[in-house]
From TrEMBL:
It is found in: Cytoplasm, Stress granule; Nucleus, Nucleolus. The lineage of its organism: Eukaryota, Metazoa, Chordata, Craniata, Vertebrata. One of its GO terms (cellular component) is nucleolus. Endoribonuclease that specifically cleaves inosine-containing RNAs: cleaves RNA at the second phosphodiester bond 3' to inosine. Active against both single-stranded and double-stranded RNAs. Has strong preference for single-stranded RNAs (ssRNAs) toward double-stranded RNAs (dsRNAs). Cleaves mRNAs and tRNAs containing inosine. Also able to cleave structure-specific dsRNA substrates containing the specific sites 5'-IIUI-3' and 5'-UIUU-3'. This is Endonuclease V. It comes from the Eukaryota. Its cofactor is Mg(2+). Keywords: Cytoplasm, DNA-binding, Endonuclease, Hydrolase, Magnesium, Metal-binding, Nuclease, Nucleus, RNA-binding. HAMAP family: Endonuclease_5 (MF_00801).
Length: 248
């Protein structure tokens, strides 16, 4: 019996993830990453896809670029988009990456001097079912260092909201404290980070591309005024897609 179209699509996507996964670099590749104070880092980007409530097809693809270390907005781009790929857990990148990549490509074409040196992604990187989340996908296709920062714990590869996990969260005393997210294989897939003294609820940081986990965690903390790093918080706070108001 032949596979259904949905099964064919999943096989195609799994194969594509496996192929691109081989290209992920989990080490620091830029001089600024090796500096204690990130000397040489001037521009940090953030991408996000925001959905209209009750609508899982129309969304707002957003990109901001902030100065570093003062985190002031240098550039912003927002586009209403219509998603065509279906939502399937573990394959979110196939729905979202094309539009986020387009935003980066528009910036590179129109104002290349503002291209970010690193991109924060509202989602996971290596902390994923097959170690290839949205931040990895965007990183490999864009060629830019990427960091995945998720607000909620993805219960995957043996990591779950156990009593031990909750006690580890409670032990995070101040901003910058973290603990590793260790999969069933023993590999560290990411870290839970208390990103701010003001918030006891952690974020979950993982490597996207061209950066080490320790550097990704340190940079995430450096970019946090509140719980969520500014490059990701800014698009939601600024409500860049004004069309949302008219659509509603």
């Amino acid at each position: 019996m032949s596979a259904s179209p949905a099964e064919d699509l999943l096989q195609q996507w799994e194969s594509e993830q496996a192929r691109l996964r081989q290209q992920v670099l989990e080490d620091d590749t830029e001089d600024w990453q090796r500096s204690p104070d990130f000397s040489g880092l001037e521009r940090v980007g953030g991408v996000d896809l925001s959905f209209i409530k009750g609508d899982d097809v129309n969304a707002c693809a957003q990109l901001v670029v902030l100065s570093y270390p003062d985190l002031q907005v240098l550039y912003e781009d927002s586009q209403m988009v219509t998603l065509t790929a279906p939502y399937i857990a573990g394959f979110l990148a196939f729905r979202e990456t094309p539009f986020l990549l387009e935003a980066l490509q528009r910036l590179k074409k129109n104002q290349p001097t503002l291209l970010p040196q690193v991109v924060f992604v509202d989602g996971n990187g290596l902390f994923h079912y097959r170690e290839f989340g949205l931040a990895c996908h965007l990183g490999v296709l864009s060629g830019l260092p990427c960091v995945g920062v998720a607000k909620n714990l993805l219960q995957v590869q043996g990591v779950n909201k156990s009593e031990e996990h909750q006690s580890q969260i409670a032990a995070l005393q101040r901003g910058g404290d973290s603990f590793p997210l260790i999969g069933a294989s023993g590999k560290v897939l990411g870290k839970a980070l208390r990103s701010s003294d003001k918030s006891s609820k952690p974020v979950y940081v993982s490597v996207g591309h061209k950066i080490s986990l320790d550097t990704a965690v340190r940079l995430t903390h450096a970019c946090c005024r509140y719980r969520v790093p500014e490059p990701i918080r800014q698009p939601r706070r600024r409500k860049l897609c004004r069309q949302f108001q008219t659509i509603r």
